[in-house]
Specification:
Blueprint lengths: L8 E3 H4 E7 L2 E5 L5 H4 L4 E3 L1 E2 L2 E7 L5 E6 L2 E2 L9 H6 L7 E2 L2 H10 L7 E8 L2 E9 L4 H7 L1 H6 L14 E7 L6 E12 L4 H11 L6 E10 L8 H15 L3 E6 L4 H17 L15 H12 L3 H13 L4
Parallel strand pairs: 2-6, 7-9, 14-15
Antiparallel strand pairs: 1-4, 2-3, 5-8, 6-7, 10-11, 11-12, 12-13, 13-14
The protein binds acetyl coenzyme *A.
């Protein structure tokens, strides 16, 4: 057999095709990254015509994996078992190669979107809904969808799903024959330490600590076919709305936001500040305003991080509107 390494090497980003099967047909898309699975070079060596099909049904996201190739180099140390490698990142229930079995399982499954519906919105005549759930309530679904975090967020890793503090927000298209998954976000609640005085005062007065929390948006993914259609914005705003209504939450922050996510967050936050009149003419910024009291007041009302608020103020100043 001739041995030309180039002919036996394929880009793992090109070889992997992800599909979502809806009742009226499947749609497919490619991953943004595969290095967490196949290594930094994102190349797979030792196969010809390698095709990795990773399919999910659109509602329960029950996974199916099929790896095919026309030939494979034998007796070579550098050749990975593609199927076994990918299965390390997928739930144990993943059905391999037997498509009919997968279709039967999907058909028999009585799936219901976990959690509580918090928002509904429309794009054209299609309806979309956002659900909020604890991670434990959505654990089965989370184990199926968490691979999207590795495939679409740079430098992402799996979260500890056994920690009960995680919550998950899910976006589904809900106007079709069957709900169809659009994206999700995971959020962690950290204890917010206000000050020693407040901490001790609350502890002394009530016996029970009225703990305040900081919500950290950890992972946020909208699947490629749905990107650039306003779903990210709807999900982010829906989540922020929930945090604003929760008296325990003092601050909303984001873990390692990507440039794209920063964009989305800045636009949504800035619009919110304008909507709430934060930069209105009533605030006389040229004289007489106690700036530090104003910052404190706005931050506590909007639950923005200080750094994010400073960025937004700078953007508003550049816009030259206040
Ligand atoms: N039609 C056309 N365009 C629209 C519409 C619409 N109806 N509504 C909004 N848009 C525009 C927005 O104005 C925005 O424009 P801009 O790029 O010029 O700012 C753009 O579409 C994106 O906004 P959304 O559509 O709301 O965002 P999207 O749904 O694409 O989600 C996200 C953005 C989350 C970054 C998504 O692209 C994604 O999942 N990317 C891959 C993973 C990722 O990077 N996740 C974030 C990592 S950071 C973290 O996890 C904390």
């Amino acid at each position: 057999m001739s041995f030309d390494p180039d002919k036996w090497t394929v880009s793992s980003n090109d070889a992997l095709q992800i599909s979502l099967a809806e009742p009226q047909g499947a749609f497919s898309f490619r991953p943004a990254f595969t290095y967490p699975v196949f290594g930094d070079s994102e190349q797979i060596f030792g196969y010809k015509d390698l095709k990795i099909a990773l399919a999910f049904d659109c509602a329960a996201l029950f996974p199916f994996l099929s790896v095919t190739y026309s030939s494979k180099l034998e007796n070579h140390d550098d050749i990975i078992d593609v199927q076994a490698k990918l299965l390390e990142f997928l739930p144990k229930e993943t059905i391999i190669s037997d498509e009919n079995k997968w279709l039967d399982v999907v058909e028999a499954d009585k799936f219901e979107i976990p959690g509580t519906k918090i928002k509904t919105y429309h794009r054209g005549d299609e309806e979309f809904s956002i659900y909020k759930s604890t991670l434990s309530e959505a654990s089965k679904l989370h184990l199926r969808i968490r691979i999207f975090v590795l495939l679409f967020i740079e430098a992402a890793s799996y979260i500890d799903e056994t920690d009960p503090v995680w919550e998950i927000y899910l976006v589904y298209k809900t106007s079709g024959e069957k709900p169809s998954f659009v994206g999700f976000s995971t959020v962690y609640s950290y204890w917010y330490f206000e000050s020693m005085e407040k901490h001790d005062l609350v502890a002394l007065k009530n016996d029970v600590l009225d703990l305040k929390i900081r919500k950290k948006i950890s992972q946020f993914v909208i699947l490629p076919p749905y990107q650039q259609k306003g779903h990210g914005r709807e999900l982010y705003s829906g989540m922020v709305e929930q945090f604003l209504q929760d008296d325990q939450v003092l601050e909303i922050c984001v873990e390692d936001p990507s440039e794209q996510f920063d964009d989305l967050r800045d636009r949504c936050d800035l619009e919110r500040l304008y909507r709430e009149g934060v930069f209105s003419e009533e605030n006389d910024f040229t004289s007489g305003l106690d700036v530090s009291a104003w910052i404190k007041k706005v931050i506590s009302k909007t639950k923005l991080e200080k750094r994010q608020f400073a960025r937004l103020v700078e953007m508003a100043m550049l816009k030259n509107e206040f």
